[in-house]
Amino acid sequence: MAAGFNWFFVLSSVFLVNLVKTLLPSISSFLSKIFQKDADQEMEMRTEIQNMKMELSTIGMMDEFARYARLERKINKMTDQLKTLVKSRTSQQAKMKWIVNIVFYILQAALMISLILKYYAVPVTVVPSKWIAPLEGLVAFPSGIAGGVGITCWLVVCNKVVAIILHAVS
Amino acid sequence: MEASEEAESAAQQQNNAAQRRAEIRRRKLLLNSEQRMKKIVGFSQSDADSARVLEPRLQLDLDGMEACSSKRLSPLLSESLGSVSDEAAADERSVSPRRGLQKYLSRFDDAMKLRGQLSAEKPAQDSGGEEELDSFCLFRLVCSVALAVFVRIFVCQYLSIFAPFLTLELGFMGLHKYFPKVEKKSQTTMLTAALLLSGIPAEVISRSMDTYRKMSDVFSDLCVYFFSFITCHELLLLFGCDAS
Prior knowledge:
By secondary structure, chain A is an all-alpha fold. In chain A, 75% of the residues lie in helices and 2% in strands. Chain A has a domain at 21-121.
């Protein structure tokens, strides 16, 4: 009975991997939010710049030039600081995304290799060989059992079908 | 009186000197008119120098060849022919580097444009700009699943499962024209940009991409068909309904 569910086990693994792949952007943004330290500071700076701009609009440049210029310099300085902060946050997000992708692809490769090694000599399922003629050799690779469905063929088929299903659903 | 005469003679001398200088300048301008025309048109000094350098060598060669042969042509005619051919060769040499430079610059412009296109299309691709399943695509997938189930239940005992699949694909080729045609926007990818820059015409690339797309559609149909067949087979085995 357990041997009869090999095909389902491979299918579920492939489905899980592809599901995690579609969720990768959300995972990386979640992780970057957790590791981000300056989120509050950025918000405060934005609010402060907004307030200063409102104050600047009330000051007449001709009447109070010195105050106007001082405030404008403050705004410019804070804007530059905000830009630097945003730049560092963006680069951190990109780095996090890159790390998450790399880790995922390593795990995916490890899973695929382990499945192939596990089912190298054992077909995931067996059907009468005349059903899958004349491609029984290709379908059975690498198990070599007549009428068997090999792990590589089944992995390719499952990957394709799961990708189509997830694409249609999303 | 004498002073005025002296002043007059000095003025005359000055005029004469000025006229002489003007005459010298005029002659100088007339002498260099050819060079000036070449500069205006775009021939550089170096090209002119190289052309001048080549001329005597070629003339010598031609003269040498003439000496080896039976000296049929007169020296004057051979010289003029040599100079004309030298000028043409020099012209060609000067034009070909320019053409190569222009070609390089145009390729560089194409590369910059393609880079801009790639960067513009990357956000669209990142935000899930994949092609949606059009009606024909959906029809194909549904038919593949339905045929797989039908073949598993009724047909597989008699012949290979791939024969009905091939028949189905032939049917799709005929039915394709009855479905609304969806214009698929060709995206600029790194591969297409590299192929364009390597000189392959865009028409060839688009046709190859079309063929590749059709082959991938057939492969998708085959995967769905085979998957549906195996799943149906396993479910029938699970529920003990296998009549084969």
